[in-house]
């Protein structure tokens, strides 16, 4: 009887740790995809929304990401990319968590002949 009660707590703790690790991994991937999408858009300022989203998705291993916002500000010479993902846990008692990350990058300046 004691093992049955203790096992419930033990397995809840173990699965909670696993889900938390998966959540941290998903957020890390979302943040990296935002940085890489902003870097791609800074190097290619005429890139379309689909190209930036394709680059971000190609680098997001194991996580389905979408570009929520993509903006090129010519006045400040910056580009910003916002990536979103909804984390769905495997365990049924944990709620879904919306993840989002925004990255800004300065546009690349190409020197003629250099």
Written account of the structure:
There is one protein chain. The chain is of the alpha+beta class and 114 residues long. The chain has one domain (2-106). Helices cover 46% and strands 25% of the residues. Strands 1-2-3 form a 3-stranded antiparallel sheet. The protein is rod-shaped, with a radius of gyration of 20 Å. It starts with a helix and ends in an 8-residue tail after the last strand. The model has no long low-confidence stretch (mean pLDDT 88).
Low-confidence runs of at least 5 consecutive residues:
none
Mean of all residue-level pLDDT scores:
88
- How many domains in all? 1
Number of helices: 2
Helix-strand pattern, N to C? HHEEE
Give helix % range. 40-55%
**What is the β-strand count?**
3
Q: Compute the CA-based radius of gyration.
A: 20 Å
Structural class: alpha+beta
User: What can be said about the biggest beta sheet?
Assistant: 3 strands, antiparallel
Q: What is the end-to-end distance?
A: 76 Å
Name some characteristics of this structure:
25% strand; single chain; 2 helices; rod-shaped; alpha+beta; three-stranded antiparallel sheet; 114 residues
Give me the secondary-structure topology:
Blueprint: H1 2-43, H2 49-59, E1 66-73, E2 78-87, E3 97-106
Helix pairs in contact: 1-2
């Amino acid at each position: 009887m004691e093992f049955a009660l203790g096992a419930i707590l033990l397995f809840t703790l173990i699965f909670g740790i696993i889900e938390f690790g998966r959540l941290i991994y998903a957020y890390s991937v979302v943040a990296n995809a935002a940085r890489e999408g902003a870097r791609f858009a800074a190097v290619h300022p005429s890139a379309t929304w689909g190209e930036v989203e394709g680059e971000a998705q190609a680098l997001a291993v194991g996580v389905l990401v979408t570009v929520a916002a993509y903006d090129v500000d010519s006045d400040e010479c910056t580009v910003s990319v916002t990536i979103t993902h909804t984390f769905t846990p495997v365990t049924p008692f944990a709620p879904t968590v919306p993840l989002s990350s925004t990255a800004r990058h300065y546009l690349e300046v190409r020197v003629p002949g250099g």
